[in-house]
Design goal:
Nuclear Transport Factor 2, Chain: A; 2 helices; single chain; 266 residues
């Protein structure tokens, strides 16, 4: 993927304060057509509903279950897939898993289940077929609340560190000293746009339509940043609209260090 980000950043050198007030990022995948022109044999995205994709997920998870001494797992949802032709068809998948009610002897019947099920981990697998043999690989990481006890699962299948650690909201954090500044999360968003080749509305849109406006007032508005400082006083900073393309100088932003037509907008 490639993209552009805009950010409003507050810096107070004397108080040693660095804080992101707002941000916006827009991302697009690199054109599959252009990648294929440059590298016909490189992996390309696959339709998640392709039966071969589901086969790669179930076959790789079956390998994981065979090497697991206790719990068995089943596929909840395939989240990403790609394919490639090497010495035969090759499929690479990422998918969410859940604990299965099936026993080890019933593992072959535990396949795709309801997408509404609560996932407990994320697996990456591959299924590579050649004229001589089939290669299957798999690695799984478990979410923190479902991390198996030490020795409970086979380390040979690379279960890795836990994912998605719990993050407390600012109001749930333990109170610090009375004069310590509170924290506030920056306001921001990340939007994912389709490949420019697939975007039916590209004729009326910028390659990276981005909006970053804490205010639309040309004179600027005062933004309360008291939470960044210690003490009872009220601190503000004047925020003006983010400069439009017409307001930028020829020097800022400067030319790309390495011009690449794959990741730069036309």
């Amino acid at each position: 993927v490639y993209g552009q980000c805009k950010a409003l950043f507050y810096m107070h050198r004397t108080a040693r304060i660095l804080h992101t007030l707002s941000y916006n990022c827009t991302l697009r995948p690199v054109s599959r057509r252009r990648i294929h022109q440059m590298c016909p044999d490189c992996p390309s995205p696959s339709d998640l509903s392709n039966p071969k994709v589901l086969e790669a997920a179930t076959e790789s998870l079956a390998k994981f279950n065979r090497e697991s001494p206790s719990k068995q797992y089943s596929v909840v949802k395939v989240t990403r897939a790609s394919s490639q032709w090497v010495d035969g068809p090759s499929y690479f998948v990422e998918y969410l898993i859940q604990e299965s009610h099936c026993t080890k002897s019933q593992a072959s019947s535990c396949t795709h289940q309801s997408p509404d099920s609560e996932p407990v981990g994320l697996c990456k697998g591959s299924l590579v077929r050649s004229s001589r043999e089939t290669f299957v690989s798999v690695s799984c990481n478990f979410f923190e609340s479902q991390t198996p006890a030490p020795g409970g699962e086979n380390s040979a299948v690379n279960q890795g560190p836990a994912l998605l650690p719990k993050v407390e909201e600012p109001q749930q954090k333990k109170a610090g000293p009375t004069d310590a500044p509170s924290t506030a999360l920056p306001k921001g968003s990340v939007q994912y746009l389709p490949d420019l080749d697939d975007d039916k509305t590209q004729g009326s849109q910028e390659p990276f339509p981005m909006h970053l406006d804490l205010t639309t007032n040309p004179q600027g508005d005062d933004l309360d940043i008291s939470f960044l400082f210690m003490g009872p006083g009220r601190e503000t900073v004047k925020v003006i609209p983010f400069p439009s393309k017409e307001q930028r100088s020829a020097e800022c932003p400067g030319p790309a260090q390495e011009a690449n037509p794959l990741v730069l907008p036309p």
